[in-house]
Amino acid sequence: MNDADIRAILPFLVLSAALTVIVLGIAVRRDRGQAAILAAIGLAATLASLWPAQAVAPRQVTPLFAIDGYALLLMGLILAESLAVVLLSQAYLARQEGPADEFYALLLLSTLGALALVSASHFASFFLGLETLTIPLLGLIAYPRERPLPIEAGVKYLILAAMSSAVLLFGMALVYARLGTMEFARMGAALAAFGQGPQILWLSGVALIFSGVAFKLSLVPFHLWVADVYEGSPAPVTAFIAVVSKTAVLGLLLRYFLAAGIFRDPTVELTVGVIAIASMLGGNLLALLQTNVKRLLAYSSVGHLGYLLVAFLAGGTAAIEAVGYYLVAYGTTTLGAFGVVTVLSTGAGREVVALNDYRSLAWRRPWLAAVFILMLLSLAGMPLTMGFFAKIYAAAAGVGRDAWPLVGALVAGSVIGLFYYLRVVVAVCLPAAGEQTPEPAGAAGLAMATLAGLTGILVWLGVYPAPAVDLIRGTARVFGMQ
Amino acid sequence: MILLWLILVPLIGGILAWIASRSGSALARWISLAALAGELLLLLLPRPAPYGRWLAELDLPWAPELGIRLHLAMDGLSFVLILLTAVLGIFSVIASWSEITERVGFFHFNLMWTLAGVVGVFLALDLLLFFFFWELMLIPMYFLIVVWGHERRIYAAIKFFLFTQGGGLVLLIAILTLSILFMRQTGTVSFDYMALLKIRLPPSTATLLMLGFFIAFAVKLPAIPFHSWLPDAHTEAPTAGSVVLAGLLLKTGAYGLLRFVLPLFPEASIHFAPIAMALGVTGIIYGAVLAFAQTDLKRLVAYSSISHLGFVLLGIYAWNSLALQGVVMQMLAHGLSTGGLFILVGALQERLHTREMGRMGGLWAGMPRLAAIAMFLAIASLGLPGLGDFIGEFLVLLGTYRIAPGFAAAAAAGLVASALYALLLIQQVFHGPPHAAPAPPDLAPRHMLVMGLLMAGLVWFGLAPQPVLDTVAPGLDNVTAFARQR
Fold this sequence. Notes:
Strand order of the largest sheet of chain B: 1-2
Mean pLDDT of chain B: 87
Number of helices of chain B: 20
Largest sheet of chain A: 2 strands, antiparallel
Number of helices of chain A: 21
Number of strands of chain B: 2
Helix content of chain B: over 70%
Order of helices and strands of chain A: HHHHEEHHHHHHHHHHHHHHHHH
Strand order of the largest sheet of chain A: 1-2
Number of strands of chain A: 2
Oligomer: heterodimer
Mean pLDDT of chain A: 88
Strand content of chain B: under 5%
Helix content of chain A: over 70%
Largest interface: A-B, 30 and 31 residues
Structural class of chain A: mainly alpha
Radius of gyration of chain B: 21 Å
Distance between the termini of chain B: 31 Å
Distance between the termini of chain A: 20 Å
Low-confidence stretches of chain A: none
């Protein structure tokens, strides 16, 4: 391992160092504020370390990690999202009982797993990253351990995550048995060497891998855990699962499919298409029935992952661009929405999630309501928000491939989606039943500033998407280590 | 740059009005009025010198990677429609002067942003930019209905949003398909109207795409199978919302048909014309018959809109210069007469707290000014010669008669029904035994001013329509010329 290799994996090193510092800090002195500050500094330093890494990219570091523009872009996105989660959770945790220091250590460890995942180019690093991402999540989900709901959610996630990992491993074994390699880049060639004919072993392997990944992405029919876990987790953790874990896993899936040449297979394409349609329709229909905002957002995220799969299926650099923009939009919007839930739950002693709690929010806390409405409109794909261009990207990807069933499901899903987003917007805008006194803003100043930043990005890139598109295009060019 | 300002002035005015409402709601109203007056000046003062095809044009990059440009242009057609937007905007602000008392700043913000979206729709020449404004105008309109509407406002607002948004998504798919086909032919990514006019499509594809565009615009217009959102939305909206919905939002559907469907898909449109004209005639008769059956005054006016917009659809697909001139005249006159009727209904509701015609009656004695104006507007809307609506309907019928005498005859039958409901309205509300014991106050001076201007406009359109028709003519020539190039 030479100098350039070290620079390429600098983000991993910096983040691991930050993690160590936090753990050591806990050993010296227990202090909530100290851990939060260290975590924020660590994430910011890791973000800064992307620049030296970018100077040597694209670079293959051992067969395990491909540090290319694509990986760095998603790393940047993931780090920014983690940073936002840290900022959002600071006030929330400060009002909780019990120690909060380990929360940040777990969060950073999970982020490290996500970074490994998006740069993985080998089954070993794939699995390693996934487990590093998942296992700290269990601790994060069940963090308020005196409450029953988080414990239940944690156990549920533990069992299903373990099962999906087993399925994933078995799939990897099958693919390895058939192709004799675990490096993504060699798989395409190995597969082509077998020539025409059905590839039952390989197909089963890919199907099992996809199932394991689809569990993490909560695609229909692997979505059964999503509402319970979203509901049971503390609001900032929900945001983290919804955003960071999904970004990382989808980023990995796209690299695996592109590098291993899986897009060329019609059976796989058909299966992914069917799952996309099921997710778009199923997720949105299930969301219709919810009166709990977290559960509603959970099922809405199932639908959004369905739209993302439509963009994903575009294949090639078009897929990188569409998925990239969609991920940025989805990340900003989802963080914003769960951020509002976090701020409302801060100091409330419970999770503020019932639709009734949001009644007439616009007249009690107008700024928070404005942010929430903008986020919901972005989820619905309305103009002036990033969701508008994300919707156009997904639709254009479907139309570009003449995939009319996908496009039809996208339209149907969006219309259903509008209905329940509007229901929440209506609740927020309803006049208050009794007196209308503006509530005190609470002590969540940092979280409110984060929300303001997210809203600014949402509107700026929603009106003028060129900077984001430029960045993503630029990285798409340096993709590929083959 | 004037074109950009036409969009920016209401946007900025809306934000200022919202901010200013903290120090008094009157200030918010005055700021909105000033912004709209500025819009009017911007439109009228610099007599635009003809600039090739367009009176004015602006073409800037917006998201060049995606092939989206900030391409705005104005011809005679957009000019008169934007003029109508500014005028009806001023009337809406005045009409809600005493009706809206809560959250005045946010109300004017939404009103102004709707108007800005409408202006954007009338100006955009890039298809995705058009779609951007098309969706942008929905959100503030939705808030207008949800927050300030009447009893069943939530149901109405969600229905309105789902219908138009469903149509909008179909439009988006059609736009994207068109652009991708264009890219496959020429290798360049573009959503530009002038570029896409050059695309060559196989007939079956063109028909499908044409239907995609048509559905979106027919929902907005509304044409018959897609109309059911309209009575609810118009009835439940506050007065200003109804005026903007009927006067402007419906016109964006007609504008879309004229600007995009006919020029982009001329052959497919010709084949589709009989069906569209049949839908138009059905709308004329259906709207008039249902208006006759209503007991809610506002619903009556709403259904009469379906009937009037049926003439617009009929005229567009009759597609000769007479009918198209009639279409524009009908749009302007309907904007004024129906807008006026909605303002009157709003004034009545403010005074009587009901819209049920059964609980009105004998109001002529108590409020002669309001009653006389209602009489005038009802008669205008039934198409009395000498007033604007007559010119519109007559020209449409004349143009249609040359193409399809049967449709023209059936549409003329709809005129008879419209006389019925207009007279029913007058008879039930203003004649007969009085219901309200103390006579409510008559119209305030500011209402009288609005109504005077409205009536003057209708008389002007009715007696001397030629200046309007001359202004619009080059715009309509654009429609036919673009279509002929194909």
